[in-house]
Design brief:
Glutaredoxin; 26% strand
Length: 106
């Protein structure tokens, strides 16, 4: 299951991770966010131990959302070695996320 991150633990969990990280920026009221939520959970299970998958509620974590310029949700960002490696905005098929995750671990 995807971990929850927020303003207080984002740096420790995501930026200091020794594994690549997929971050789903979302909000409870966002319909497209709910559409991709099952993909995020599936990827979390399929890549367990190789990629850390986390969710960040933008309403609860405005600091992180502002820092990374999150203007539209869902936005999924991919981090490697504490740096943004890729980004996907909007509800897209699972294959889009999988190809970006695969690129992180190759």
């Amino acid at each position: 299951m995807a971990l929850q991150v927020n303003d207080s633990n984002f740096e420790e969990v995501v930026l200091q991770s020794d594994k690549p990280v997929m971050v789903d920026f979302w909000a409870e009221w966002c319909g497209p966010c709910r559409m991709i939520a099952p993909f995020v959970e599936e990827i979390s299970k399929e890549y367990e131990g190789r990629v850390l998958v986390v969710k960040c509620d933008v309403d609860d974590s405005p600091g992180v959302a502002t820092k990374f310029g999150i203007r539209n949700i869902p936005t999924v960002m991919f981090f490697k070695n504490g740096e943004v490696a890729d980004k996907q905005v909007g509800a897209v098929p699972k294959t889009n996320f999988v190809s970006k995750v695969d690129a992180l671990i190759d």
